[in-house]
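Sorry to interrupt, but I need a hand with the structure work. It will help me judge whether the discrete encoding reads sensibly. Write everything out right here, beneath this request:
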Amino acid sequence: MPADRKINTRYCSDKVRVDYAHVGLYDVQSRQVWIARKRLGVVPVRVSHARLLVGGTQDTSTADKDRYLCFWFHTPGTGEGYVHGYPIDWSEGHLLVRVDPNWNYTTCEFIPSTDTAKVERNIEQQYNWGRRIFEAYASAKPRFPLSWHMVGPRATDSSFYVQRIEGAP
């Protein structure tokens, strides 16, 4: 099945928006960003990533999710608390991109921690994808400061405030 057929377009759109908090997926094959649609009675930042795919639901996942990089987009005031013990200024906008040092989204294969060269290349690739996602949000010209973070399984796998923009006037 082609990648675009795996996307549940009832629940997501390929138009990047900065006016509401939401979850999203980055298709590593087509290099396309997909975000949860704003729907009546549904809080888009609370939608499961699997729900954005055909066959996934709010409560169950789908194996197809393993080829998409997951992220969360927060407008000012829509997040709270610490991320892996790190303080985040939730009065600003934030893009949190999942990083998984041991999962290769392109090949859908596990990389053992002992293969440090492959793990490092994999992390670099995921940072490049994160940068592309951030650039898509920056080009939407949010009217608020926006930072992006790579959030891994543990705090030591994460990088906070990778890049920040002030926002459009």
In short: The first strand starts at residue 12 and ends at 13. The chain has a mean pLDDT of 91.
